[in-house]
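Hi support team,

I've been running sequence recovery on a batch of backbones for a student project. Most finish fine, but this one hangs at about 90% for roughly twenty minutes before it completes. I'm not sure whether the input is malformed or the queue is just slow. I've pasted the structure tokens below so you can try to reproduce it. Let me know if you need the job ID as well.

Thanks,
M.K.
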């Protein structure tokens, strides 16, 4: 009877989802974008390195996300007006309740006498008084979008916000203060600026400017609201621009009444754990939510992804079951079967680069010593369990995701990667497979490098069958579980064992490290009884996430 009831519930759920999909298809959002990039100017403004590339790449990205794109490069004044007319006509012809308009501009822009202007490629401007006849008022575009009455309009301006022009002939003074903030935002409008008032938007060292480079990356990350997209972009731009010695801080103005996603997050309908297709979701505060069509399940096994520029790269681990533990040591007994749900794990240990992003942002209070071995893409070391939790808290705040330490059962399941052998690759080990036994004169590693103490750069050795690196050796890795002397009473699922703990301040370490003998690197080996405040140059950590 219970099975029949469950089947009936499943059938009813599927019928409900089909109804949602059908209703959604009738109200699918229309997305229209106008993209302009002006790099080559015919007068005294010269050539800008990146705007043409920025506009080209932004147009290609938005097309992939389902926008109908109108675009132009190095447009003259009349050509810009022509593109604006096309954009305006398309907005007016669309249903305002389900239409999203987006305007993106890269190039020169300035404020004169309280009015903001964009400069066409043929702008002949010597003094500020010339701008009114040579430029295009930004307010013209704002009003076009405002009067379309769309539920959502986005304006993105990657332009310098200073004014280098003399006020009048024979004057050597220049206006300062940059663009005037737009005060007449329409309801449901979001404006993102590539830099703050009075500052220049820096060209990048590569194909794109700093702002657009990071913006393009972030709008392609699923599940980020537009506020989070621009916050992530702001953090990345500020960090990189400081390294270049030209601080740049993007800003925004926001009149949205609901949530907007370039790519929507997963959503749960009657516990079916389905993910939305790559359509826009607008969640107005005063009207029912529009749910887009449902096309695919959660992240696919083996999929690799990053939630932000400085985030660890994650890989999706398949669900399954395995026999956890061994007969080698008392704390690895009894061997017991454990069922594991699909989850994600970071491909490598958290690196110094990733940790330093947290420390530089003020999210991590400790700046751990690298022992002189180097930072960068080496695993962060001298990290205790509490430090790892501090990093996770910061990363979750920055990404709106739910990172955590893996449970001990998840860790061993991932380390084994479908094998029951001592190591993920078999029952024997060589120095070409992992970083271990460092500094011992009998080791092959010592013979190849007499300064052999220390960690290796992540990904120095081959990944296991699940795409994970350094699951054996390099550094010990913290897991979520508190310490138990054996597996007697351990969970039979993938939950961390955080109940019935004799001392909740003590936790478990897995993996073995650069300084250990091979027997400490076995998939089943565990180091128990480590205080949550204990750190060493052989200890680091990696992360996990739920994917269902």
């Amino acid at each position: 009877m219970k099975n029949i009831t469950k089947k009936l519930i499943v059938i009813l759920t599927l019928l409900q989802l089909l109804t949602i999909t059908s209703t959604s298809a009738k109200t699918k959002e229309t997305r229209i974008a106008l993209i302009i990039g002006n790099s080559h100017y015919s007068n005294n403004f010269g050539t800008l390195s990146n705007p043409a590339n920025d506009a080209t790449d932004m147009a290609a990205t938005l097309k992939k996300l389902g926008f109908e794109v109108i675009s132009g490069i190095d447009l003259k004044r009349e050509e810009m007006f022509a593109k604006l007319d096309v954009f305006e006509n398309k907005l007016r012809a669309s249903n305002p309740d389900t239409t999203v308009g987006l305007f993106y501009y890269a190039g020169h822009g300035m404020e004169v006498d309280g009015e903001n202007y964009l400069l066409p490629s043929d702008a002949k401007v010597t003094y500020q008084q010339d701008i009114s006849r040579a430029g295009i008022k930004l307010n013209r575009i704002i009003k076009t979008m405002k009067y379309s009455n769309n539920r959502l309009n986005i304006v993105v301006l990657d332009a310098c916000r200073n004014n280098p022009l003399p006020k009048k002939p024979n004057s050597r003074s220049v206006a300062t203060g940059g663009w005037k903030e737009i005060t007449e935002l329409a309801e449901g409008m979001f404006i993102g600026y590539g830099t703050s008032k009075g500052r220049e938007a820096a060209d990048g060292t590569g194909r794109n400017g700093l702002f657009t480079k990071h913006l393009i990356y972030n709008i392609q990350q699923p599940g980020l609201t537009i506020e989070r997209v621009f916050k992530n972009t702001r953090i990345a731009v500020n960090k990189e621009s400081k390294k270049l010695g030209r601080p740049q801080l993007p800003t925004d103005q926001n009149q949205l009444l609901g949530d907007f996603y370039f790519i929507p997050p997963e959503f749960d309908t009657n516990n079916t754990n389905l993910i939305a297709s790559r359509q826009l979701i607008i969640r107005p505060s005063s009207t029912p939510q529009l749910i887009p069509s449902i096309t695919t399940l959660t992240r696919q096994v083996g999929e690799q992804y990053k939630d932000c520029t400085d985030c660890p790269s994650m890989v999706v681990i398949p669900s399954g079951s395995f026999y956890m533990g061994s007969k080698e040591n008392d704390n690895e007994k009894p061997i017991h079967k454990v069922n594991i749900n699909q989850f994600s794990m970071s491909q490598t240990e958290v690196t110094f680069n990733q940790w330093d992003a947290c420390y530089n942002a003020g999210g991590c209070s400790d700046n751990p010593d690298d022992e002189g071995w180097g930072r960068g893409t080496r695993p962060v070391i001298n990290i205790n369990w509490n430090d790892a939790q501090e990093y996770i808290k910061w990363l979750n705040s920055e990404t709106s995701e739910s990172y955590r330490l893996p449970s001990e059962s998840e860790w061993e399941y991932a380390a084994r990667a479908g094998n029951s052998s001592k190591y993920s690759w078999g029952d024997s080990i060589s120095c070409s497979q992992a970083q271990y036994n460092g500094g011992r004169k009998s080791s092959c590693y010592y013979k190849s490098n007499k300064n052999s103490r220390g960690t290796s750069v992540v990904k120095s050795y081959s990944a296991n069958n699940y795409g994970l690196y350094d699951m054996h050796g390099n550094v010990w890795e913290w897991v979520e579980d508190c310490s138990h002397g054996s597996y007697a009473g351990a969970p039979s699922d993938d939950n961390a064992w955080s109940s019935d703990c004799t001392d909740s301040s003590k936790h478990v370490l897995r993996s073995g490290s650069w300084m250990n003998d091979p027997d400490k690197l076995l998939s089943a080996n565990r180091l128990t009884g480590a205080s949550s405040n204990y750190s060493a140059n052989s200890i680091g950590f990696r992360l996990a996430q739920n994917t269902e």
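--
Follow-up from support: It reproduced on our side and the slowdown came from queue contention, not your input. Residues 1-27, 166-178, 267-297 have pLDDT under 50 and may be disordered. No action needed from you.
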